[in-house]
């Protein structure tokens, strides 16, 4: 019996093959991703034009705690995979780097003015961004293992 996970792995495995069908699938998927990116960009323009000012957000503290929990999970996974010298380190490190970049962005963009903003900026430039760059470099080097 085939599982959905097995079907996905099989399909993704075919994308990496050197075969005319795989080449066609890669091109089709690539164009589909580009089309989605264009649509998303258009949506961003709509949002930028219509969402001026302040927005009230429910569960704001839960969102921040959730983001931090995801960062911890990414760092734990990266550390564990790195100790095992697994090629999967590349995926975990890339995900953790992305989460750190997002955290820096949201910290700076949502901080109140004055001291809170300067603190967020300092954390971004002194901790989060350097850590994200280091994790991205680790992700790149782990691809060669």
Give a written overview of the molecule:
The chain has 145 residues and is an all-alpha fold. Helices cover 81% and strands 0% of the residues. The protein contains 5 helices and no strands. It has helices at 4-15, 20-50, 60-83, 89-110, 115-142. The longest helix has 31 residues, at 20-50. The chain is globular. The two termini are 33 Å apart. 13% of the residues are buried. The model has no long low-confidence stretch (mean pLDDT 86).
Indicate the topology.
Blueprint: H1 4-15, H2 20-50, H3 60-83, H4 89-110, H5 115-142
Helix pairs in contact: 3-4, 4-5
Features:
145 residues; mainly alpha; 5 helices; 81% helix; globular
Number of helices: 5
The first-to-last residue Cα distance is 33 Å
How many extended strands? Answer: 0
The rounded Rg comes to 20 Å
Mean pLDDT: 86
Sum this structure up briefly.
With 145 residues, this protein is an all-alpha fold.
